[in-house]
Amino acid sequence: MSPETEPLVKVENLAVAFRGGVRAVDGVDLTVRRGEVVALIGESGSGKSVTLRAIMRLNPERTSRVEGRIRVAGQDVMALPKRALADFRGRTVAMIFQEPLLALDPVYTLGRQIAEAVRRHEGVSEAEARARALAMFERVRIPSPERRLDAYPHEMSGGMRQRAMIALALACRPQLLLADEPTTALDATVQIQILLLLRELQRELGLSAIFVTHDLGAAVEVADRIAVMYAGRIVEEGSARQVVLSPQHPYTVGLLKSRADGALAKGARLVTIPGSPPDLARRPPGCAFAPRCPLADEACRRDPPVVSPAPGHRAACWRVPGADAAEPAQRADAA
Amino acid sequence: MTPALDPRDRGGPGQPLVSVRGLVKHFPIKKGLGRARAVVQAVDGIDFDILKGETLGVVGESGCGKSTTARLLMGLIPHDRGDLLFDGEAIGGRDLPLRDFRRQAQMVFQDSYSSLNPRMTIEASISFGPRVHGTPARRAIEEARALLARVGLEPARFAGRYPHELSGGQRQRVNIARALALNPRLVVLDEAVSALDKSVEAQVLNLLLDLKEEFGLTYLFISHDLNVVRFICDRVAVMYLGRVVEIGPAEAVLGAPAHPYTAALLASMPSLDPDRRTEEPPLAGDPPNPIDPPSGCRFHPRCAWGEPVCAKEDPALADIGPHHAVACLARQPGAAHSRAPLLEREAA
Amino acid sequence: MSAPVQTASLTAPALPAAAAPAPAPAFERSPGYWGHVGRKLLRDPVAIGAGLVILTIVAVAILSPWITPMDPYRGSMLRRLRPIGDPTYILGSDELGRDMLSRLMVAGRLSLFMGVTPVILAFLIGSAIGIVAGYVGGWLNTILMRTIDVFFAFPSVLLAIALSGALGAGIFNAIVSLTCVFVPQIARVAESVTTQIRQRDYVDAARLSGASSFTIVRVQVLGNVLGPIFVYATSLISVSMILASGLSFLGLGVKPPEPEWGLMLNTLRTAIYVNPLVAALPGLAIFLVSISFNLFSDGLRSAMEVKE
Question: What is the ipTM of this complex?
Answer without folding.
Answer: 0.86
